[in-house]
Amino acid sequence: MRMLDIILKKKEGKTLTEEELRFFITGYVKGEIPDYQVSSLLMAICFQGMNKEEIATLTELMEYSGETIDLTSIKGIKVDKHSTGGVGDKTSMVLGPLVASCGVKLAKMSGRGLGHTGGTLDKLESIPGMSISLTKERFIDQVNKIGMSIIGQTATIVPADKKLYALRDVTGTVESIPLIASSIMSKKLASGSDTILLDVKFGSGAFMKDLDSARELARTMVEIGDSLSRDTRAILTDMNQPLGCAIGNNLEVIEAVNTLKGKGPQDLVELCVKAGAIMLEQAKVCSRSNAEELLKNKIENGEAFEKLCQFVEAQGGDISYLKNTEKFEKSRHIDKVIATKEGYVKEINALGIGEAAMKLGAGRATKEDTIDMTAGIILHKKVGDYVKKGESLCELHTNVDNYKQIVKEIEESFKLTDQKIVVPSIIYETVE
Ligand code: URA
Question: What backbone phi and psi angles, to 5 degrees, belong to 393?
């Protein structure tokens, strides 16, 4: 078999066989196929696409290109969730303890933030002492004992994706549904959970800018999961404004704590309760309609917050910061962004806010950058709210001394109108 023939076949829009895909993935991981040939095949896939069988086969080959995590020694059904990433997305820190407090097992591997999107690992590390690298034995033991753990992805999981993603990044081949879907699903499948809930975000702050492409990505990933016998469902959620009010690492931990104590912003609470209900149904704990009530009770009776404390303590984090969030270190500059006119908030450009938060110090422009755990933005107004001239739109937190230009960028992210706005539901639809 020759790589050149595989490239030519896909260039002509033909279907690749399992043997051909295996030749490509194993050869590339072993370093036997050069980057220039793989780039060419990736570009052909971008233009010609792949059918369902090809995508499922590619995903499975990628899944088994390295170590897979065996969670069978954890009792019960293991659930997982994945977000395609957004601005202010602290869902895992709320949803994890929430479902674990209902008896479900969550053994989750998360990622770091890059560009305008944040990552759960960075957020968790803003809690003093918190470790996100545990041995496999400790990870499994913790999930058996307290029901949850969140750690960083091990270096040995899905090496095919590590190589392919780096190449896609520099060859203009990131934007392809078969390639994105196989990249995400191979990692989720290799992480070993029985069920997967995908939170596919659409809108200005999301990877998928429009609803149609988010829906196509969600359907493709659910089909991969189904064809590989893993219960996979997806929700399409709105990322046309940041999720909740806090953007930035320790600011988002504080908002997650407040949410688990029953004082969360409406969109984040709705997302966590609805997504949690699907996860409880996947874990066969109860029906989706009964699950919402159960989850709300776990917030009201304090058990979900208690589960967060158990999880953080088990991973070395100092829970006195969760019990008294005033203890978290604050930025040197905390300043309000004031409305210069009045009206209803029509839009808060999530990409603009995410980029501004990154410039304030909360994110990384490149993988090597360090982040300021205290930096970020707290929204005082959300879409649909009425703002009077002179009122605060939001508050910025930063240790960057010269931040006046960033204030302008934040201000421009808020679009006001005279018309009353109907606030869209955070979950647009489910795909299952
Ligand atoms: N996230 C991933 O993990 N892979 C992609 O291809 C795109 C987003």
Answer: -85, -40
